[in-house]
Amino acid sequence: MKDKTITPTQHELVMRENDFIVSKTDLKGRITYGNQIFMQFSGYSEEELLGTQHNIVRHPDMPRGVFKFLWDTLQAGQECFAYVKNMSRDGSFYWVFANVTPSLDENGQVEGYFSVRRKPRAQAVEVVSGLYRLMLEEERRVGSRDACAASLALLTGLLAEKGVSYEAFILSI
Q1: Which residues lie below 8 Å from residue 167, measured CB to CB, with a gap of 6+?
Q2: Maximum C-alpha span of the chain
Q3: pLDDT tens-digit profile of 62-89?
Q4: Answer CATH for 21-172 from 3.20.20.70, 2.60.120.10, 3.30.450.20, 3.40.50.970
């Protein structure tokens, strides 16, 4: 279970070029598998991670609208790419470039989700950090009840102004 008393710090953990954080979840986002690198960066043991919601590593600097977009994309049966700032058990943070895909059973039904995260490009982190700050400001402005919809609307509006899809934007930075 996520410890709500964790205080974010300014200490950054940086992934190595050959690191791949891998995890699997069930349909409700509960962790069913995490590799050693996931445990290393998260600061949690396998026993602490298994059965826990994946948001155990959610950093408060992440807008809720990003996760709404991610879940909407996955529930539509599509894979999703995203830059994500995660928080370790000790309050440290680490950025990842995530690819999340639905996992299918032998009948083609979604049985969970599979995520592989790797070291993001510094330039991309700089771009999304600014975008995420804008989204968080919008979430605070409208309040908790409308936060997801408002920050997602801000994101889609900015992408429409640029004339690009979310995926094209994420893969171009």
Answers
A1: 81
A2: 46
A3: 999 999 999 999 999 999 999 999 999 9
A4: 3.30.450.20
